[in-house]
């Protein structure tokens, strides 16, 4: 029972996988991180303060 609980808490990270599955997991984690970084960058770009908005409006 404690082993099941431990697996749940660690997100199955401690399970030994065959090499091809390890590579796939690493690649998936990399893609997930890239997507997360891209999303946060786009989110940051969309946010602007009222002052920035007014300056942009005056420039246009």
Radius of gyration: 21 Å
The proportion of residues forming helix, as a percent range, comes to: over 70%
Largest sheet: none
Structural class: mainly alpha
What is the approximate shape? Answer: elongated
Please give the domain count. 1
Strand segment tally: 0
Estimate what percentage of residues fall within beta strands. under 5%
In round numbers, the mean pLDDT is 76
Order of helices and strands: HHH
User: Which regions have little confidence, pLDDT < 50, spanning 5+ residues?
Assistant: none
**Terminal Cα span:** 65 Å
Number of helices: 3
Q: What does this protein look like?
A:
The protein has 60 residues and is mainly α. The chain has one domain. It is built from 3 helices and no strands. The longest helix is centred in the middle third of the chain and has 28 residues. The radius of gyration is 21 Å and the shape is elongated. The relative contact order is 0.06.
What's this entry about, in short?
The chain is an all-alpha fold.
Write the layout of secondary structure elements.
Layout lengths: L1 H9 L8 H28 L3 H10 L1
Defining traits:
single chain, 60 residues, 3 helices
């Amino acid at each position: 029972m404690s082993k099941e609980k431990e697996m749940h808490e660690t997100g199955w990270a401690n399970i030994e996988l065959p090499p091809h599955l390890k590579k796939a997991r690493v690649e998936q984690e990399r893609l997930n991180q890239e997507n997360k970084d891209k999303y946060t960058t786009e989110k940051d770009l969309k946010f602007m303060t009222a002052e920035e908005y007014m300056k942009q409006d005056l420039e246009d």
